[in-house]
Amino acid sequence: MSERRTPPPATRILVVDDDPTVAEVVTGYLDRAGFAVEHAADGPDALLRAGERRPDLVVLDLMLPGLDGLEVCRRLRETGPVPVIMLTARGDEEDRITGLEVGADDYVTKPFSPRELVLRVESVLRRSQQATGPSPVRTVLADAGLALDQATRRATRQGRELALTLREFDLLAHFLEHPGTAHTREALMRSVWGWDFGDLSTVTVHVRRLRAKIEQDPARPRLIQTVWGVGYRFDPGQCATQEAEA
Q: What b-and-e string marks burial along 220-236, b requiring 16 or more CB atoms within 10 Å of the CB?
């Protein structure tokens, strides 16, 4: 008699939205995509459910009763890493940037294609699982006083540990792997986020946040240079030259 195997548990998605119609559409599409979906209608309920059983990803509306999505995202991040996709009716760039700065991994503006949202969820989960999967062959990257251990997901600057988010770590690793190369924001989105579509301000915000953590003067960055009309370039040689001149 063959041994019966327990099937692996489905990936758990917590959908947080106070609009019953939107919540029904989103949960329906995610359910048909094979995810185990749970719904919360407000901020406090979302935190309660996440505390009882941590989800693998959260689809989080920005405008919520009780606690808004930004505060919910902040509190979720305080308890540990969890991928978050912000979902909102607002189209203002400042709202998108604020959502990314509190730790959202992606941002989808209503009205949206439910199928596109499913693709975004799958993409964010894939990148998140890669970060926690088996260690890559090359585990240590180092240059310009920076060191990244890809096996332990730890980064240091001049020997002091850096508090990097998942995306910030991946972005810095990509720069260290390609010193002196100019990257467009579209190329960075494909290489670091694994997306062929999306809001390019995601890249801009993460570069700004990364500069704040690795540059001596983020207002005058030496390591991550802006290449006007192109994008960004990691330039450890120029940093070393300027430090020697100083």
A: ebbbbbeeeeebbbbbb
